[in-house]
Amino acid sequence: MSAKGLSLKDRRDPLKVARGLGSAQYGVSHWWAQRLTAAALALLSIWFVIAVLYLLHADYTTARAVVAKPWNALLLIAFVLSMFWHAVLGLQVVIEDYVHTRWKEVVLLVVIKFLAVLGALASVLAVLRIALTP
Amino acid sequence: MADTRRPLSPHMQVYRWQVQMVTSILHRATGIALAVGSLLVICGLIDLAAGKDSFDQFKSMIGSPVGMVLLIGWSWALFYHLCNGIRHLIQDAGAGYEIAQFVRSSWLSVVVSIVLTALVWGYVLTSGGAA
Q1: pTM
Q2: Would you say the ipTM is above 0.95?
């Protein structure tokens, strides 16, 4: 509540709040996280494309050795984490915009979050395994 | 239950097609495509971690004709989403909202993404085939 009295959100129809409509209070942090991960990915994805092109004809041993280098492993982990985070934020907006059946919307929102966390963990584990196995 | 319907704004089909509209739609479409493409990144990393056989299998998969076509599509999606994403970041900073600038930057996103895709695949194909 603001110092001057009721803030705008307090004047909303309580029925709307009960129905789960209106501000969820996370809008700004969602927007900001999307831009932050976008800026990170703008740099990291260019690095990733160059790294993939560098590995174009690499055999297994070379590819593993390149990924295992500390800087490459670090940037690769940063890349996959920003990628899955950014993907969830973006897909969330698309689902919220186009899926109008509430239960389908909620199920999809949960599913993409589960999948993104699994994807991120699997990728990080793979990179760590490559980087830490001698 | 009370009527909770709200008036809707006119939907897409009433508008004339313009490049700003196409870039906006493509940004979402390529974003969804790239989210699916992230599976390829996971596969590549897991296969590389799993051993030589699975990595060779992964290489032959992405080197196959279907794999190459998908990769061309995904690489363009990545470059487009990257170019247009940078355009959106600039707009978020408050710049580029004049109509002429807006249209020009839209075309720039499309053209630069195609040029980058062509450059990358030119390099891939002239350096002795993919994967």
Answers
A1: 0.87
A2: no
